[in-house]
Amino acid sequence: MTANNQIKSGRLSKAEVEENFSDLHPPLTRSEALIEADRCYFCYDAPCMTACPTGIDIPGFIQGIRSDNLRGSAHTILRENIMGGMCARVCPTEILCEEACVRNTHEEKPVEIGLLQRHATDPIFKSGEQLFERAASSGKKIAIVGGGPAGLSCAHRLAVLGHDVVVFNRDDKLGGLNEYGIAAYKAIDDFAQTEVDYILSIGGIEVRNNSALGSEVELAELVEAYDAVFLGVGLANSNALGIDGEDLNGVENAIEYIAELRQTNDMSTLPVGRNVVVIGGGMTAIDVAVQSKRLGAEQVNMVYRRGPEKMSASVFEQALAQTSGVNIHHWASPVRIVGDDHVTGIEFKLEGSDEAMHLNADVVFKAIGQKLHGGGLDALASESGRFVVDADQKTSVQGIWAGGDCVVGGDDLTVSAVQHGKIAAISIDQYLRNS
Questions:
Q1: pLDDT, tens digit, for every residue of 94-139?
Q2: CA 360 – CA 289 distance, rounded (Å)
C-alpha cells in the first residue's frame, strides 16, 4: 500500500499494536482445561464429531485430557487432522462442533472444543515429538501442487503411507492461507510455520518453493514424471469489482494486504488509512477490517450487498468486527469509486431503492472472493471456475486429484481443505497399490 498524507504508519505505538494483535483466544491453563473437559457429556452419538469435517473423535480426545493423557489426546486429534493445531485457532467452531454440542442451549454455553483441542496439541508442536512413523517405502512418488492445508494434509498422509512426495509451492513459505491469509491475532508466535515444520518432520516430503504452476512447472510435465498428482492450488487471483475508479491508487486487494501484514516483523510500521472501506461479507473482509482498526484506522466501514444472514463470515466474526469498532452496512452494492489520482470515496446503491450512499475513503479493500489461476488446467472438468471432483477427490483426468478451495464445494475453511487432502491421499494410495 502506497503511503500518502492520509495513509501512514505509526498511528498507534508499537506497544499498542502488539497488544491489539495479541492472542485472540488465550490458551487454557491445566485447571481450566480439566474443568472444561469435565463439562462434556461424552454423548453416544457425538453430534460434535459428526459436525467436524475431519471426523475427529472429540469425546475421545476430551477424555484424554480428563485423564491427563495429553499425548494420547493429541494423537486422537492429529491422526484425523494433522493441522489440528491451526484448526483449533482458526476453525469457526461456533458453526461446527460447538454449535452441535448438546450443551449449546439458551441456558449454557457449549463445551469449548476449540480451546481444548489447542490445549491437547500445543505441547506436541512445542516439543516436536513425532506421533507418527512412515510405512515401508512404496517406491512411488507423488507431486503435490500447492503448499496450503489441502496440499500439506495430502503430503503428510502419503508420507505416512510410505510414498515419497514433492510439494511444488508458489510462495516463499509453506502454509498457504494459514501463513498468508488469516488475521495475525488468530495465530501468533509464527505458529503456522511451527505446524508446517512438524508436518515435514515425518520425512519423505521434498519442498520446492517459488514453483508456481504454469510458470516454473507445468501440469503435463508432472503427469509424465510422477505416479500421481494432487492439486491444492487454492484460488490465487482476486475477483474484480468491475466498476469505475477501481484502478485508482488506494484500491487494494484485501488478501494481499493481509499477507504483507502477516510477514512484517513490526506491524506498527505498516501504512494504514484514516478512512477505510472494506467491500465483502466473508472472513477475509472481517480480517482486513478488524486489523485495519487495530492498526489505528479512525473509521472502518464494511459494506455487504446482502443481509447479515447471507454473510459467509460467522456470527462470532461479525460480532468481533462490531466490537472492534467496525461499522457494518448491509444491502448496498458499490457502483463507483471516486477520486482523481487517489481514491477519496466510494458510492453505493442501496438495494431495493433508488437511494445512494457515499462513504469517504482513502483506502478501499476488495474482499469479494478469489478465482482460479490458469496454469494449463483447461483439460480438467470445471464448474463455476472450480474443479469438479468425485467423493475420492478424483478429477476428470486419471491420475490427478484435487482439493481445497479450488474444487467445487470448497468452502474456504482450513478444516475442509485438510479433509480433502486426507481423502485424496487415501485414494491415491489405493490407486498406486492396485496399479
A1: 999 999 999 999 999 999 999 999 999 999 999 999 999 999 999 9
A2: 15
Q: Is residue 21 part of a domain?
A: no
Final residue of a domain: which of 75, 105, 127? 127
Instruction: Check pLDDT > 80 for residue 4.
Output: no
Sheet containing strand 400-402, strands side by side:
205-208, 164-168, 141-145, 228-231, 400-402
How far, in Å, CA of 113 to CA of 122, rounded? 14
- Give alpha helix (H) positions in 101-190: 113-127, 149-160, 177-180
Report how many domains make up the chain.
3
DSSP designation for 130:
-
Whether 377 and 420 share a structural domain = yes
Are the C-beta atoms of 285 and 313 separated by less than 8 Å? yes
Q: How many Cβ atoms are within 10 Å of 23's Cβ, its own excluded?
A: 13
Q: Which of 369, 391, 410 is the last residue of a domain?
A: 369
What order of strands is seen across the sheet that includes strand 343-350?
332-339, 343-350, 356-360
Mean pLDDT for the stretch of residues 332-346:
96
Rounded CA gap, 416 and 414, in Å? Answer: 6
Cell matching residue 211: 514453483
Torsion angle defined by CA atoms of residues 3, 5, 7 and 13, in that order, rounded to the nearest 10 degrees: 100
Residues 6+ positions from 342 with CB-CB distance below 8 Å: 4, 248, 249, 250, 362
Residues 429 and 283 occupy one common structural domain: no
DSSP code of residue 95: G
H or E stretch covering 87: helix 84-90
Q: How many residues does the chain have?
A: 435
Do 412 and 340 sit in the same domain of this protein?
Answer: no
Q: Give, rounded to a whole angstrom, the gap between the first and last alpha carbons of the chain.
A: 51
Interatomic CA distance for residues 237 and 371, integer angstroms: 5
By the 8 A CB rule, do 329 and 278 touch? no
In one-letter notation, the amino acid at residue 414 is T
SS3 93: helix
